[in-house]
Amino acid sequence: MDPLTSSTIASKIDIDRSVGDFRYDVDYAFDAGVGLSEATIDYISEVKKDPDWVRAFRKDAYHKFLKMPMPTHWATKDLENIVFDNIRYYLSQGQAPKRTWDEVPEDVKRTFERLGIPEQERKYLAGVEAQFDSEAAYSNIKAAVGEQGVIFVGSAEGLKEHPEIFKKWFGKVIPTGDNKFSALNSAVFSGGSFIYVPPGVKVSHPLQAYFRINAQNFGQFERTLIIADEGAEVTYMEGCTAPKFETATLHSAVVELVALKGAKIQYITVQNWSSNVFNLVTKRGLAHEDAEIKWIDCNIGSRLTMKYPGVIMKGRRARGEVVSIALAGDGQHQDTGAKMVHAADETTSNIISKSISLGSGRSTYRGIVHIPKHLKKCKNNTECDALLINATSRTDTYPAITVRGQGHSVQHEASVSQINAEQIFYMQQRGLSEAAAMSLAVNGFVNDLVQQFPMEYSVELKRLIDLEMEGSVG
Amino acid sequence: MSTLSIRNLHASIGNQAILRGLSLEIPQGEVHAIMGKNGSGKSTLAKVMAGHPDYTVTAGEVLLDGQSILDMEPDVRARLGLFLAFQYPIEIPGVTIANFIRSALQARLPEGEELEATQYYAELYSKMDELSIPRAFTARSVNEGFSGGEKKRCEILQMSMLKPKYAVLDETDSGLDIDALKIVSSGVNALRGPSVGMLVITHYQRLLDYIVPDKIHVMAAGKIVLSGEKDLALKLEAEGYDWLDEHAGIEKLK
Known about the structure:
The structure holds 2 protein chains of 2 kinds. By secondary structure, chain A is an alpha/beta fold. Chain A is built from 12 helices and 24 strands. Chain A has helices spanning about 5-10, 40-45, 50-65, 105-115, 115-125, 145, 155-160, 165-170, 180-190, 420-430, 435-450, 455-470, and strands at about 30, 90, 125-130, 135-140, 150-155, 195, 205-210, 220, 225-230, 235-240, 250, 255-260, 265-275, 275-285, 290-300, 305, 310-315, 320-330, 335-340, 350-355, 360-370, 380-390, 395-405, 410-420. In chain B, the strands form 3 sheets. A 6-stranded mixed beta sheet of chain B has the order 6-9-10-3-11-12, with helices on both faces. In chain B, strands 2-1-4-5 form a 4-stranded antiparallel beta sheet. By secondary structure, chain B is of the alpha/beta class. The interface of A and B includes residues 425 and 441 of A.
């Protein structure tokens, strides 16, 4: 049976991102203007009252950014369509993050209320940070969690109030010059979370950050640093949306995780950017002895996403895991994957990636697994499965697995499958519409991974996938 | 009016005509059987009624309780009450049986109405018990890795949960050993009643020992060439299908 042709299906799948696609007018007190120069960086440093070392850090990063080429020798040429001179690098209302929703300015608050953030916080979160364009509008943790010594603040507050912990790890997991976009982020970063979990403290409920882009031609550059001290455990979740604009928007975050001896960090992302956002994010964790870092990543939306969460397994028996789901709709490119760097004996990494391409969407898996010669008994398992919906959909897989030395165990599996017309007919015969049948089949494909997300997120995820698959049918 | 009525149906796949003027009337409350040689068009009839996209209807009509269904999407026909038990049920990886049947039932409810979960599971489990399907099956993906017998039982389970007005069973006996055949047949018999009309398609008369039809039709070269009672099946069993070719010729001359 032939795969479904575009003519039968593409017309029926219209990307619906209505949940996040709304925008209220907001007054900004601080606006760095359009374009990037040293003056832009000075402006940001002054508004944010940066310590001198931060200003110097930004300037150094800016020069690295200028020198580094676009990585188009391996990545998509679409990167060349980012016009850095047309982007606004800093926008804020100039107020410190509020500790209660009542204090959050009305124009910003109604956005988060519409996205359901305060409600989710009441129901099942240990703390929330809600970032609106460049700065957090709200940041709070439940008293019980704060009393355990857990720090959960914005990055600006973290670097000023807790420099002894912040400076030790900031920029250490992901060096400024790691890639052009980590350099850009280091130059203009604003917002993002700083989390410190003291030794032995297990945070029972997830901490959540929500990133919202509201302004057109805007770049959001949050910077997140999470440190779990020895034996500590924490789960962090982030969600993202932006309204649909006529022009491109840039989101370029840097996220660094540090899991000290025996610590566990789980980092969960559900991204639902609108279809003109360039989402170019660098995420990496450093796992010490017996520590575990797990990235659970779901990428829906955006024009182009390039994201390869990584784990450097620095200590013996450290474990790294990346579980990712990507859905590339019409005109979208999800270029995602994982980086696993084994740097100690008996370290274990696991990569499970599933992608869905529909319409003219394209999904790319890129993975790096590195096990050097001097190590013993390292293990990696990589599975990547791609599902193609239309004849025009595309998927590519670029696994780079380097294993030297002996006594390691490495496993790699990849598959490409299609939903065929017989499956759709079978489901339709049971009374499901064509769109509902497609949705069910796609949800089935990612079902085993969706179950790894916390309940509330897996329900949300299913709803987002349904929305993507629905459209003008009916 | 409570009848599934097929009138002078012609259908083809590509350029090849397969159904050539088939007419049949299945009133609610009756069980009809269609027998015929391989290639006589039995399975095509089932797929055309259900609206499989590979087939083109070139003439004739199918009326469900007086309503013409041939211009309808397969799912609309299904929601009107037409069910097809597939000869080769399709695997849907990652979609559990419980979720699949639930979604199908949900699709029959008016907008904004939610299926009541407790009641749903109670009914599902009791029907599974009747069909000797272990409860652990609810968590398995639809038809994935099922044996032939498990697939057929799962089709009957879906039928009993969806409660169609008209059910077409396409070679439901194929690939079943005698024990599975008994279970499937008793499942079908349990569904018999005044509110459902059934069309049982089979190659062998064996099935009709367990599901005793009200009428038997014999199909050859894309149409019904002979209709009769239960004894017709026995004659076919004893004499094979070849004598029918001659019979078909006579029918054509009329």
